[in-house]
Amino acid sequence: MFKFKIVGMMALTAFAMSIVLVFDAVTSSADQNIPEKEVVTTAALSGLARTFKDPYTGMEFVFIKGGCYEMGDTFGSGNKDEKPSHKVCVDDFYLGIYEVTQGQWEKVMGNNPSSFKKGNDYPVDRVSWEDVEQFIHRLNSQTGRKYRLPTEAEWEYAARSGGKQEKYAGTNQEGELEEYVWYVHNSDFQTHPVGQKRPNGLGLYDMLGNVSEWCADWYDENYYEKSPADNPKGPDSGTYRVLRGVSYLNDWYEVRVSIRAKTTPSTRMNLYGFRLGFSAQ
Which of 88, 126, 200, 230 has its CA 20 to 30 A from that of 157? Predict the structure, then answer.
């Protein structure tokens, strides 16, 4: 099992970038330390006691009952691309309880691309969207399963503890941020082992902070104005892919579940990681 924490992601100061940022734009499992009892209990509190553990990598997933919710800026403090808030419905799905770790990546890919090579239970970082797709293809070939990146709509629904009116993935209290998130005020400008902070209402760790997480969708600043209500999957094409969840370098005013980020699918930074999911059908 893992133990993990949380952080922020968008505007980086030149100072912070000069110290810790490793940028590479290209063209081209350890056991978690969270006791099983805690995972089951937090899931059961939301009526989601079913979990799944991948026997090959040790990745753990929780069943998330689908539903409808108000997606986007519901607190009035968001950026233009977080508006308008709009009703979205998602089907049942599974999502990783933790961000994919360096140990799990190395198990599948045979290498560790991370900038912060501190242990198997740290989130893998410095992976591009294209790298992640290669990981998923290889993992699915090895396991016979259909793992994938979550859509933006699934990610935010899960981060909001099942579509609740939550600003910080587990709480609405700014004073409680450090209990849930690794961000610039407590991260020491680096990632931390997964699962050390408090989980949200679905038993998910590090939905905000630690590393920003790739989603499946192409990015469109105005997509929310035309998004379908049922299982939106983003635009059919684009230049950028979406990242959600902020990173260890984001400040408090960026740490919210509705914030969106974008970059090209070939970009690698030590802020970027991911978690996997799969459909419940």
Answer: 126
